[in-house]
Amino acid sequence: MSTFGLERVFSPRSIAIVGGSSRPSSLGAAVLRNVKASGFTGRVGVVNRQYADVDGEPTVPDLKSLPFVPDLVVISAPAAAVPEIVAEAGLAGVAGAAILSAGLGHGAGSLAETAEQTARRHGMRLIGPNCMGIMVPHAKLNASFAAHQPSDGHVALISQSGAVAAAMIEWAAERRLGFSGIASIGDQLDVDVADLLDYFALDDHTSAILIYLEAVKDARKFMSAARAAARLKPVIVVKSGRMAPGAKAAATHTGALAGSDAIYDAAFRRAGMLRVYDLRQLFDCAELLGRGFVPRGNRLAILTNGGGLGILATDRLAELGGVPATLTAETIERLDKELPPGWSRANPVDIAGDADAARYVVALNALLDDANSDAVLVANVEMAVAPAEGIAEAVAQCVRDRRSKRSAVAALVLAAWVGADERTGAIFEAARIPHFPTEDDAVRAFMYLVRYREASTALAAIPPGIASVFMPETAAARHVVVKALSEGRAWLDPPEIVALFEAYDIPIVTTIVAESAEDAAEKAAPFLAEGRAIVVRVFSRDIRHASDVGGIILDLRTRDSVVEAARTVMERARSARPGAKLQGVTIQPMIVRRAARELILGIADDPTFGPVIVFGRGGSAVEVINDKALALPPLDMNLARELVGRTRVSRLLGGYRDVPAVPVGVVPLTLVKLAQMAADIPEVAELDINPMLADESGVLALDARVAIRKPALLFAGQTRLAVRPYPSQWEGELALRDGSRVTVRPMRPEDEPMVGEFFKRVTAEDLRLRFFHAMKEFSHAFIARLTQLDYARAMAFVALDPNTGKMMGAVRLHSDSLYQNAEYAILLQSDLKGKGLGWALMQLLIHYAKAEGLKRLSGQVLTENTTMIGMCRDLGFTVTMDPDDHSIVDVVLDLDRPGVDAVGADILIRTAAAGR
């Protein structure tokens, strides 16, 4: 249900606490004490049938006995009583409940299921069960049994563990870091991580979101919410269970390589979330991101009074992928004049062990003025000649002075005072300077910020288009797979794999099936006549890897050797696997590429996230080498390049010594093709190419396996993919009033330049009517938000001139978190208005909304935009004056109303037919 009702849960006007006793260890009593201590100003009631009072507060026997209807109910009663309490709360009109009680069970017939179904009938939200509760300091709300009150701040914490949430509160109190909200969600019976990501992403009090995660229930929902939130603010996640057994016994190498934690890592990366690996790192990120610190880049200047400390910091920086800042000549000259002759004259800037506060300030000002550094780490080891506390005061004052003079600190400042006491920490806290106990902690924290910045940049990057170089023959590929499934098979035969790969333009070695040794000799004859050597491989649907049974013989150059080899591999297979049914052997020409790199590419299947693309170093020792990276499909070329770049083998793809480079883009494009196959053909359950050779001539698959299954057995919903792919079925044409046609398709991320050019052909007045204010320029970030759609929540159709390809107009919708109501917007090239394009695009959008199951389409229109208001009335929208702003009218279309979309269905027929 996403954010529905959560506003009243996190900002309640009244609270009821159900359960508890006078015992000090009672959860209900602890919650009551926290509610009172937090300064909550709303009404508070206590419901308890067994005690006349709880912690001195009088009780009533049930919710209906309260003189008010609470917005939030906190339940700590025994598990067996919870469903009845939820039912009573739902009937009363309660917005939500936090269920602290444990032991409700799981699955069909459990107390948890009964409570969840009851709450859903009443539109009531549930947090928990088995949770610590919720805290919203700015609303003076602490409806939890946490030991201490969190302070107000700008970081939201979502935790599947109450203990972790409590630890975060304790740590934050020591560092004077506050929270905008804390939610311990326990078993996630209703409200889950995705719901809270949606909520805090739009919460004005929240500038960063921290997550402690144990497992994801709904991958599509999680990925959609995470991607949306990460575009707006930093999202940092730590996941437990990293070392749990994830690599199952698999029939393909890709299946074996795709451990569960690696898939979670791929999901976090795809969503633009910053992953850390323990609570200390989570704390450090909260320290930085919670205060809005983001560096301009990855160049770090290090200022220290200890040369060894600076070298250690530089080593760690290089190890983590950072860059030591190169001092400008101007900075070196300036420091030469102001520092003693013995300073290092390089980064790290070692100002010697006798450095006092004045020397630190002189050097820090110079480094902050240096355009080559993105951040400055000020490190100190206390010496007898200069008290560390005094130096800390001077550094803090230096930063304050620069801020107060509005000469903004040119770079982020971090502090590492080794062996510092609490007084030094308090100095940096007061100056809002991130500080750490060691140089290692500081450098790691800096690099987490760099990775966050890189992830944010990647989310807004324009991916290159591939439609001009890659158009799969999806129908041919599907025919191969469906035919094999109809025969009851779980694996494609070698010739079928060749046909599948050819449909997706993936080069693969010629493969011919022979039923016997003599048949093998006949089919090898044409290759032998050309002087080519032959590879013979045993063919059995019961043997996944021929090499496991000695079923491969290479470099055969005569007819007799082919006959002998075919007999040998079949005999070996019968001996090693007596129960295996042999279909014969396969014949392939021997491929010899002197400098080819062996790669592995594939599709693995994950029960949570569905298909996963695997890439790495291939060969017979692939699992031992374990040089691999994973990504969630679909992929574009940017994502594919990034996937390749995360492996060690990527370094070998470039040229070295006398080995020519693999053409740039060949391997990433092949990964894009595989990802498209995963999106197009959900029946492909697992796919393994090992090895795929890559050299200066391109790529070639030597061996491949493809497992197939009915998709319903693998992943529920419209697609197995956790990230909804580009909806190509909505490509086609629209007919206008004058009989002309325009091309129409969903908007793509790579459309950003086209959209920018389109805006130049729209008058300033039309732009004002669309955006409600004058638009003088359109930034990359602004257009990226328009073009980079999450198709699980939004859609935009672009109309294109079929002759020039130029954009003529666009219409879009964005749904609410429940995927029931959507807001629309439309904009046309100014000189094309009045030709029926707007009408056709609106009908297409209405039809799309109905096809998606949306219930309502709405929008806001300036009252002076009479043309749009008239079209809305003609399309069946109701038009009413906005109660808060009379310069705006609200337009609403009930998509379930009979007669809506009567003409739109004809548009879909044309569109769908063209899309096929």
Automatic annotation (TrEMBL):
<dbReference type="InterPro" id="IPR016102">
    <property type="entry name" value="Succinyl-CoA_synth-like"/>
</dbReference>
<dbReference type="InterPro" id="IPR000182">
    <property type="entry name" value="GNAT_dom"/>
</dbReference>
<dbReference type="GO" id="GO:0043758">
    <property type="term" value="F:acetate-CoA ligase (ADP-forming) activity"/>
</dbReference>
<keyword id="KW-0816">Tricarboxylic acid cycle</keyword>
<dbReference type="GO" id="GO:0005524">
    <property type="term" value="F:ATP binding"/>
</dbReference>
<dbReference type="InterPro" id="IPR043938">
    <property type="entry name" value="Ligase_CoA_dom"/>
</dbReference>
<feature type="domain" description="N-acetyltransferase">
    <location>
        <begin position="742"/>
        <end position="898"/>
    </location>
</feature>
<dbReference type="InterPro" id="IPR032875">
    <property type="entry name" value="Succ_CoA_lig_flav_dom"/>
</dbReference>
<dbReference type="InterPro" id="IPR016181">
    <property type="entry name" value="Acyl_CoA_acyltransferase"/>
</dbReference>
<protein>
    <submittedName>
        <fullName>Bifunctional acetate--CoA ligase family protein/GNAT family N-acetyltransferase</fullName>
    </submittedName>
</protein>
<dbReference type="Pfam" id="PF13549">
    <property type="entry name" value="ATP-grasp_5"/>
</dbReference>
<keyword id="KW-0547">Nucleotide-binding</keyword>
<dbReference type="Pfam" id="PF13607">
    <property type="entry name" value="Succ_CoA_lig"/>
</dbReference>
<dbReference type="Pfam" id="PF13302">
    <property type="entry name" value="Acetyltransf_3"/>
</dbReference>
<dbReference type="InterPro" id="IPR003781">
    <property type="entry name" value="CoA-bd"/>
</dbReference>
<dbReference type="GO" id="GO:0006099">
    <property type="term" value="P:tricarboxylic acid cycle"/>
</dbReference>
<dbReference type="InterPro" id="IPR051538">
    <property type="entry name" value="Acyl-CoA_Synth/Transferase"/>
</dbReference>
<dbReference type="InterPro" id="IPR036291">
    <property type="entry name" value="NAD(P)-bd_dom_sf"/>
</dbReference>
<dbReference type="GO" id="GO:0016747">
    <property type="term" value="F:acyltransferase activity, transferring groups other than amino-acyl groups"/>
</dbReference>
<dbReference type="InterPro" id="IPR013815">
    <property type="entry name" value="ATP_grasp_subdomain_1"/>
</dbReference>
<keyword id="KW-0067">ATP-binding</keyword>
<dbReference type="Pfam" id="PF19045">
    <property type="entry name" value="Ligase_CoA_2"/>
</dbReference>
<dbReference type="Pfam" id="PF13380">
    <property type="entry name" value="CoA_binding_2"/>
</dbReference>
<keyword id="KW-0436">Ligase</keyword>
